[in-house]
Amino acid sequence: MKKFSTLLALAIIFCATDLSAQVTADEVTATADNVSFDSGMKASDVDANYVAKAKIKADRMAIRKERNTIDFTANLHGSLTAFSKSWQAAGDNTITILANVNFSHIFKKGKFTITNTASAKFGYNNMRMELGGEQRGVWFKNVDEIAISTAPQWAMVKNWTYGANVKFRTQFAPGYGARGDKQNGVSRVSNFMTPGYLDASVGFTYVLPSEKFPLKVNLAPIAMSATYRNDLSTSNDYGVPAGNTSKYEGGLSVQLDFDKTWGKNGWLRYRTTAYSFYGWITDIASMRKFEPTADKLEYEHVVPTVRWENTIDIKATKYISTQIYFQLYYNKAEIDKLQVSSMLSVGLTYTFKNK
Predict the structure, then answer these.
(1) Which pLDDT value is given to residue 311?
(2) CA distance 4 to 82
(3) Which end of the chain is more exposed for a tag (fewer CB within 10 A), N or C?
(4) By CB neighbour count within 10 A (0-12 exposed, 13-18 middle, 19+ buried), where does 88 fall?
(5) What's the pTM?
(6) In the chain, what is the greatest distance between 2 CA atoms, to the nearest angstrom?
């Protein structure tokens, strides 16, 4: 028994010595007066200028974010309806695709503010119809618009600014009055820059001091409206005199803008723009006042041009939304009727905001 106890004690001492050797992490140099550790780590000096540059860079980024407000939204909506030949209830196979992009950038520094916006809508649908004695699927454009604007403003007094407002609108592709007109050789009614509209004005803007009702009113005593018709083969002249590709009018304009988002996640957003132009000079180049003729009545240029656009965005989830769009447009020089456009679509959406 004593021999066994002696052997057990020796085994414990041996194992302890071996384990201590295995878990040693650093080389240890020990003397009676000095103990030093060598971990292999390299020391490096930090330059004070490096810290200062990093702070300056961070400050600049914070200032840029404070001065710039960016809002970008892209939507892709579509639908597909298909029926077999044996479907007794009848129906037509249809495909509808709609893309919608909205961009807004506001830069503010001191008393100066510039607002730049750009939007584009483009949609096609496909439906079967009889052409040349056979059923064919025909693509037909149903939505098409490009709109770009810029508005530099300077602060004047509380809630009032003065500056300019420039807007441009046209479309991407040729348009026809009815499905199948292109295949049947019927003249198109519109094209790129046919029509094209350029509105420029100088005046004053009042912003209502209310977060619950963010209304902006622009009053421009000096305004210009230009209409372009680059494609003279279209069946609609858009009020441009025969043989000409453009028409310029001078007058005054009024515009109201409202943009409001509800809910913590912005599930509901309503935007509306009402624009009215009142013109009394029909040829800015020669400054000739309007004179009625046998084929043109004097009140054609007395009745204002009015455009009212409404957009409602409803988010079901972060990437799925419903959009309702409604527009009223009246321009007696083009057609003596109120033009109405409405659209309801559901699909994918992406939104980016830096604030």
Answers:
(1) 95
(2) 91
(3) N
(4) exposed
(5) 0.77
(6) 137
Query: Residue 288: its pLDDT value, please?
Result: 44
Instruction: Give the single-character DSSP code of 301.
Output: G
CA dihedral 238→244→248→254, nearest 10 degrees, is 10
Topology annotation, domain 71-353: Outer membrane phospholipase (ompla); Chain C (2.40.230)
- Say whether 24 sits in a helix, a strand or coil: coil
Average pLDDT per consecutive 10 residues, the chain (355 residues; last block may be shorter): 55 50 48 57 63 77 86 91 73 86 95 96 87 80 94 95 97 90 88 96 94 92 95 91 90 95 89 93 53 46 84 92 94 88 91 88
Strand positions, DSSP E, the chain: 27-30, 35-38, 68-81, 94-109, 112-131, 134-157, 160-170, 196-207, 215-228, 246-262, 268-283, 288-289, 305-315, 320-331, 335-353
Integer CA distances (angstroms), 153 to 144, 150, 160, 297, in order: 30, 10, 10, 38
pLDDT on residue 114:
96
Give the other-Cβ count within 10 Å of 141's Cβ: 18
Are the CB atoms for 235 and 177 separated by under 8 Å?
Answer: yes
Burial class of residue 171, CB neighbours in 10 A (0-12, 13-18, 19+): buried
Domain spans in the chain, listed from the N-terminal domain onward: 71-353
Whether residue 148 contacts residue 170, with contact meaning beta carbons closer than 8 Å, is answered with no
- Counting beta carbons within 10 angstroms of the beta carbon of residue 199, is it exposed (0 to 12), middle (13 to 18) or buried (19 or more)? buried
| Per-residue pLDDT at 63 | 80
In angstroms, what CA-CA distances link 129 with 92, 134, 194, 217?
9, 8, 28, 47
Q: Is 245 left (phi over 0), alpha (psi -120 to 50) or beta?
A: alpha
DSSP 296: B
Strands 94-109 and 35-38: unpaired
Residues 244/283, Cβ–Cβ less than 8 Å: no
Tell me whether the omega of the peptide bond preceding residue 174 falls within 30 degrees of 0, making it cis.
Answer: no
Phi/psi at 59 (5° precision): -65, -40
Tell me the C-alpha distance between 115 and 151, whole Å.
5
